[in-house]
Amino acid sequence: MQLEVGSNFSKLEHDSVKVFSQNPGIVLSLHAGIGFRVQEKFSFSAMGGFLLDGYIFDGEGSSYNVYNLVNEVRFNANYLLPKPNKYGTQWHIGSDFGYTFYGADSISSSQNGVTYETSGGGKKSFFIGPEIGVTNSTAKGSLSLLISYVYHFEDQITLQTKMYSNQGSALAAAKGDYLTLRFRYMLDVVGHKPFQTLATQSPEDYRAFKRRETVTKQKFTAKHNKLVLQLWDNATEDGDSVSVMVNGAFIAKDLLLSRSKSKLIIRLDEGVNTITIFAHNEGTISPNTASCQIRSGFRKKQFTISTSMKRNEAIEVFF
């Protein structure tokens, strides 16, 4: 559901005697549609609805307000910048784009010797509305507060008002552009659940792990809250097995290392995240070694993990 409250101006051309003026017009729109989100960062939606486009003119003690109700078809694409604050709010950039369908109609009014005549062009016009603001995500959906400027590409008149009296005349031509404050609410109906790190039970020899020395050799800075960890044996497969713990919770236990890469997906907490790898054995070739790759977005790092029955190895990830 999307609501817009905005303001507009038309191009007002005067004769030599400036008789007429205009105040900021009022724009209201209401749209509803359906969309989807990808990885809690990208959103795409399609909407349909109505737009009320108003203009306000004054001249020689008269005031004339005219409103144009039109249909629209809109599409929206947006991106949420990573790392929300503690309230779940993220910076939001995106754009609406679509078509406005203007009807062909006319209306006239006379006040205090002043005549106003308004006519619609009966055309469709393609527009784009870049938006920037903030989005707050909750368990049931998201609410966005955005600023946008809607620009119609076709250089054509969608609403025209002629004003004339004994003092002078003017012509106001509008093409439908406006500045707006946009409110959008997306209700999650199906399919959206923020990903979480899958936890598993602690290994039986966890107490033995805790008594070992833990060394930190690798550090990594992530720009996204999703981290992909891959472990494999790129040398001789000798029966090495490990367990993996993230921030005090096990996410894999008794993981047998082979040439095939084992992939673990980790949701990072804000601040320092500690990934600890424990050896269950040293295989047939000591020590227990594993090739490791960590990746977050376009950033990645590959290195070798070396553990033994006396030493654990940890990786610090900063987010």
The assigned CATH architecture of the largest domain is Beta Barrel
Count of DSSP-assigned helices:
1
Low-pLDDT segments: none
Strand order of the largest sheet: 1-4-5-6-7-10-11-14
Shape by Cα distribution:
rod-shaped
Summed up, the domain count is 2
Distance between the termini: 33 Å
Sheet having the most strands: 8 strands, antiparallel, barrel
Could you give the order of the helices and strands?
Answer: EEEEEEEEEEEEEEHEEEEEEEEE
Beta-strand residue fraction = over 45%
CATH class of the largest domain: Mainly Beta
- The structure class reads mainly beta
Instruction: Please bin the fraction of helical residues.
Output: under 10%
CATH topology grouping of the largest domain: Porin
What do you see in this structure?
This protein has one helix at 206-211, and strands at 2-8, 11-14, 20-23, 25-38, 42-59, 62-80, 89-101, 106-111, 114-120, 124-137, 141-152, 159-164, 169-174, 178-187, 213-221, 226-232, 241-246, 249-256, 262-267, 272-279, 288-296, 299-307, 311-318. The protein is an all-beta fold. The protein has 2 domains: 2-187, Porin (Beta Barrel), CATH 2.40.160; 206-318, Jelly Rolls (Sandwich). Strand 6 and strand 7 (89-101) form a beta hairpin. The radius of gyration is 31 Å and the shape is rod-shaped. The model has no long low-confidence stretch (mean pLDDT 88).
